[in-house]
Every structure is written in structure tokens, then in C-alpha cells.
């Protein structure tokens, strides 16, 4: 099934000299016969920042609280270095063979198919699309929390802090789902550049406000909270503390995950300069910016709240005055997650629609309506169903930290480390048992162990939360 999709996505290419089909003017078309790509380092960086600085940044203060003052910051730095290193290797795999005239890979799974093939490809395809879908579920949980916080903040101020202001998540999840139904009608990933740009700006807005708020809280406290060894506010057994540490690693891993859509982002970049050069520069810029914000939000959040650091950083400031500051931050989170949701689900949309077009060609039929928009009935129906199902799943398991930790744990090693490393080794012809081969395999093995520990911690936490949970009856 996946192989047929690769054939469909690649069938547009009919190469002649240097890969340029003779019927296409190179002034308007790229070497694969597709319209000229226009992406730059800035649009590429905005896509990456939109994908990376998401709901994950809000959980970092909690993650640092579980790990402590040494392990917390060190873990974030190590994850950033691994992400930077493996993303650089993955960028080299966009073109198969020749780095300039080689065959393009339009998606992450297609790159795995072209270079590794076989079982690697099938495993990657299943895992990538499940991860992207899981990320959509995570965002469907995170955005409504910010919506609720805006109402909760006003409620607390109105009651003078006397009313706990417990609010059901369900109406807000449904509202976010309705919004995504409309936004999901953006036809292709390439068309989301403006949404990614807005989302990236919003991520800076709420990150800066978050840093300001936690810095202000540290000043009000007059002291830096937290301990070297970390640990939550509750007195728990050693086993539960270990699970908390493992889950924290998963949350940090999720905060740095974007490799699964790196190839899709790279496929938007214009040439010249080479796609690899632009992608590497954008990766360095984006990871440096995000790590700076992560360190500030995570560490300053821990300094402000100590062991009581909330799972969602902004929920710790519901009673802050002036309340409009919190409202602006939460509004920025919502806008950002609307864009991040699309960055993650557009590859899923493209996969299903290519499959449908191959089996039922009539699903490609479009009708021009107002504003030059092409109406596609299949796209409207299937994407609407996708969003509805995603919203339903989010309402069924609304555990913010647990979901992020599990996604980060399950996706980090295979998608961010294993496949990029294995593809790079084959692409560059690195000899087995050479010093570089051993080094790369050691990195992969260590990351596998970390991912396994994080997955165990997140599963244990989910099982613990399910003990007192009633479906569709969740409040914050």
C-alpha cells in the first residue's frame, strides 16, 4: 500500500537532462516538473519553529521540576544537540544519490523508501502517521486548556479568588475542533506558509510573556526555588518519582520533535542555493532560538514555582494582575496551535488524498468558487471526519502531560534518531565498524534507551490517571 503511494507522488517526474523534463520551462518549473518552489531560510525557520515551539514548551517547567537543577537543563541541552545533529544528517537525505541532481523525496517516508526500503519503510510509514495524528490529539488537548484559562482567569478575578472556577474541557475541545475543520481546508502543505509565519510569531509572543511572568514571580518570591535532585510537590514512592523523571524526559523529547516533517518542510525550499544548505542554516537558527526559550521557560518556571511547577506553565498565573496579560498569552497559544495542528496533519491529509486519487480518480475533481478557491468535495468530507475523530479522542483522554510525554517517548528515537542515522550511513557510504559508524550507532542506542524509559514513565502516569477518571467528564 505504501509503495503505491510512493509511485503516485513520484509519477510527476519524467527526467531528461539534469532531471528537467523538456516540456517544462526551468524558469517556472523545478527539475522534477513541479512549479518552482519559493521557500527561503525564513519561511523554513517559521515552519520549524511552528512545529517545535508548541504545547511542549508549556510543560518544560514541570519537566525540570521532576529532574532538578542539574539534570533538567543538561537534558534540554543534550536533546537540542542530538536534534540539531540528526536533523543535519536528515537534510542530506532529501535527494537520493547526487546531492544536486539526485531524485527528490517529497516526504519523510519516501526518503526512507528511497534509501532504506523494505521493512524500515513500512515501519516508518506507520509510525510517522500515527505520531502526526497523536500530535494533533495533543494540540486538541492543549489549545482548549488555554481557552479555559482565559475564562478561568476572569472568573477568579471576579470572585476575588474565592471560587475555584472548575471548568469542563469538552465545550472548548469541540470549539477548537470546529475551528480546525475550517482551517483544514487549506489544500496543501505549501499553502500553509502564511499560517506558519503567524503561528511562529505567536509562539514568540507567549514564550516572551511566559519568561516575563516567571521572572516576575521569582522577583516577588525573593528567592530561587527548586532543588538539585528535583521531584514533584507530592510525597511519592521512589518508583513514582522514577516514573516522573522518565515522563519528564518524554516531555522534553516531544518539545524537540520535528524530524518527522523535516523532509516535507525541505521540499518547500527553492534552489539555488541548495536545499541542504538552506535547511541546515534554518535548523541551526531554529534550534538555537527554541533552546533559548526552552531554557528560559523551563528553568525560570522551576525557579518561580519549585516543586509546585504546573504541567502547563500559564495555568500557574490565573490570578495574576493585570489579567489581560494572561489572556494575551493564552490567545497566542491558541493561534499558534491552530497553525501547529496544520503543520502536523497536512502530511497525513496528503497521504490519504494521494491514495484516494490513485484508487478513485474522481476524488481529484475540483470546482472553482469565490476567491479562486478550488472546492474538492472529498477533501471537505474526509478532513472534516478526521478532525471530528481527533477531537473525540482528545475528549476521551484529556491528559496533557501524559499524552505529550508518551508521544515524545515513542517518536523521538525512531523518527528523530534511528531513521536519520541509518539513512545518512547508507547515503554517505560510511563503512561498517568504522569510528564514525560506531559513534552514530552509540548515539542511536543511547537515545533508544532514553526513549524506552520515557515511554514507561508516561504509560505508568496514564495508568495512574485512569484510576479516578470518568470519560468525557474532565475539569480543570
UniProtKB/TrEMBL annotation:
It is a multi-pass membrane protein. It is found in: Cell membrane; Endomembrane system. This is Amino acid transporter transmembrane domain-containing protein. The chain crosses the membrane at residues 41-64, 70-94, 129-148, 169-187, 193-216, 284-308, 328-352, 373-397, 403-426, 438-463. One of its GO terms (cellular component) is plasma membrane. Carrier protein involved in proton-driven auxin influx. Mediates the formation of auxin gradient from developing leaves (site of auxin biosynthesis) to tips by contributing to the loading of auxin in vascular tissues and facilitating acropetal (base to tip) auxin transport within inner tissues of the root apex, and basipetal (tip to base) auxin transport within outer tissues of the root apex. May be involved in lateral roots and nodules formation. GO terms for molecular function: symporter activity. Keywords: Amino-acid transport, Auxin signaling pathway, Cell membrane, Membrane, Symport, Transmembrane, Transmembrane helix, Transport. Belongs to the amino acid/polyamine transporter 2 family. Amino acid/auxin permease (AAAP) (TC 2.A.18.1) subfamily. InterPro entries: AA_transpt_TM. Residues 37-462 form the Amino acid transporter transmembrane domain. It comes from Vicia faba. Gene3D superfamilies: Amino acid/polyamine transporter I. Signal peptide: none annotated. GO terms for biological process: amino acid transport; auxin-activated signaling pathway. Residues 1-22 are annotated as: Disordered.
